Amino acid sequence: MSRFEYAPAPESRAIVDIKSSYGLFINGAFTDATDGKPFKTVSPASEEVLAEVSEAGPADVDKAVRAARRAFERVWGPMAGRDRAKYLFRIARLIQERSRELAVLESLDNGKPIRESRDVDIPLVAAHFFYYAGWADKLEYAGAGEHPQPWGVAGQVIPWNFPMLMLAWKIAPALAAGNTVVLKPAETTPLTALAFAEICQQADLPPGVVNIVTGAGRTGQALVEHWGVDKVAFTGSTEVGRSIAKAVAGSDKKVTLELGGKAANIVFEDAPIDQTIEGIVNGIFFNQGHVCCAGSRLLVQESVYDEVLARLKRRMGTLRVGDPLDKNTDIGAINSSAQLAKIRELSQIGEDEGAERWSPDCELPAEGFWFPPTVFTGVSQAHRIAREEIFGPVLSVLTFRTPAEAVEKANNTPFGLSAGIWTEKGSRILWMANQLRAGVVWANTFNRFDPASPFGGYKESGYGREGGRHGLEAYLAH
Ligand code: TAP
C-alpha cells in the first residue's frame, strides 16, 4: 500500500456507540439538566453533530456538589486508602479494556490523530490511574505530614486539548487522596468524560464520588464559585484562570491553576540534527499545536540556522494533514471554528508585522476546521507571534549567538511552563536548566510526559503542580 492511501484505524468509527443525547452524571446516575438547554458537540473534522449534551445550570451544579459532599463525608473520606486503591486500579483496568473505543471517541470529538489518542493520550490516562492507585495507601509519604487529610470536594474545570488526559490528571490524584469530585469538561469535548462516567458505574464506584457536569463557561463559573467546593483545580487559558483566582479570593478555597505557555525550544550548533528536527516537529505539531507546553518559539543558534530551517521545511513537507481516524495522519483537525479563527488571526498579524510565513503545499479537506503546518521566520521578540500563545500548528523562529543570549530570549515571556534544549553537551544542559524560568525543561526530547513527573508553571503559566508526588500535595491538607 502506498503511504498516501487512506488507512482507517482497525478500531475505527464502528466500534464506538455514541448515544444521540447525554445527561449529566450526578450521584452515580445520568440525569437530565433542570435549568439548562442541551448543546451539540460536533466532529471538528467533518462538522457532523456527534451528540446532544445537557448543559448544567447553577441548580444542577448545586446538586452535584451536594452529592459529592455526601459521598465524601459518608463513604469516600472515611474509606481506608487500600480500599480506595482497589477502585482506582479497577478504573485503570477498565480504561485499558476500553482503550480502542476511547481513542476513537477522543479523535472524533477532539480532532486529534488516532495515532496520538491511541498511543499517547489513552495509555497515559490509564497510567495516571494506575500510578495514583499506588499512592492511595501511602499518603503519609506524600509530603503533607504524617496524617494527611483530604480537603473534601474538588471542583475541577478542564480544557479541550487533551480531554480525557486532563480528566485523569485531575481525578486520579483527587480520588487517591480521599477527595470527591465534580468535574466540568470543555464544551467542545464532553464525550470521553461521559464515557468515563460509564466507567465509574462499571467499576461500582460509590455514587457521588465522581460527578460530571457538562456545559460552557458559565457552568464552570458556577462550579468554582460554589460555596461547597473546598478545592478548585483549573486548566485552561490565563485569562479565565485570572478570573477564577479573583472570584475565589477571600474564600478559603485552595486553588491550583495550569495555564498557558510560549515555550522556547533551543537548538545549539552541536545538536544531533536528525533527532532535533523530529523534536521540533513533535514540539509544535503534536496535537495540532493545541498544547500548553508546545515548543512554539524555536530559538536556533545562528551558525546552524540555514541547515535547520532547510531540513525542517523538508520534513514539514512530509506531514499529512487530514482525517483523524486515518492511521497515516500526522496533523488532525483544529478543535473548533473559534480556535481556527484565532490561529488565522494571529498568523495574519505575524505577516502584517513583517515576519515571513511558509507552509508546505498541502490539500486541506473541504469540510471541517483545518490549518496547515506553518513556520514564521524573520520573527523578532516584539512580534505578537513571538509573545502570544497561538495554540495551533504555527512555529515562530528566532536566532541567537551565545548561550546567554538564548537564555535571555527564552525567558523573555510572561509565561514559564516548559522549555527544550538540544545539545550534545551535558554541562550546557545543566547550566541552561538552571537559568530557564520554566516548570519543565526537556533535554534532547520534547513533549514527554510521565505520571511520576510533576508538571506546572511559573509566572503567568499558573501555580501548583500536577503529576507525581507533588500532584497529590494539592489535594491534601497539611
Ligand atoms: P479556557 O477558555 O480557559 O477554558 C478552559 C475551561 O474553563 C473550559 O472548560 C471552559 O468552558 C471553562 N471556563 C470558561 N470560562 C470560565 C469561567 N469564567 N469560570 C470557570 N470556567 C470557565 O481555555 P480553552 O480555550 O479551553 O483552552 C485553551 C487554553 O488552555 C490555552 O491557553 C492553553 O495554554 C491552556 N491550557 C493549559 C494547560 C496547562 S497544563 N497549563 C493545558 C491545556 C490547556 P468552555 O470550554 O465551555 O468555554
Automatic annotation (TrEMBL):
Q: Nucleotidyltransferase: is it a keyword of this entry? A: no
By its UniProt entry, which InterPro entries does this protein fall under?
A: Ald_DH/histidinol_DH, Ald_DH_C, Ald_DH_CS_GLU, Ald_DH_N, Aldehyde_DH_dom
Write out the catalytic residues in the record. E258
- Oxidoreductase: present as a keyword of the record? yes
The record's annotation in SUPFAM superfamilies points to: ALDH-like
Q: Which parts of the sequence belong to the Aldehyde dehydrogenase domain?
A: 31-476
Family annotation (Gene3D superfamilies): Aldehyde Dehydrogenase, Chain A, domain 1, Aldehyde Dehydrogenase, Chain A, domain 2
Instruction: Tell me which UniProt keywords the record has, alphabetically.
Output: Oxidoreductase
Parts of the chain that traverse the membrane: none
Pfam families annotated for this entry? Aldedh
Q: Name one GO molecular function term.
A: oxidoreductase activity, acting on the aldehyde or oxo group of donors, NAD or NADP as acceptor
What family, per the record? Belongs to the aldehyde dehydrogenase family.
> What's the protein here called?
Aldehyde dehydrogenase family protein
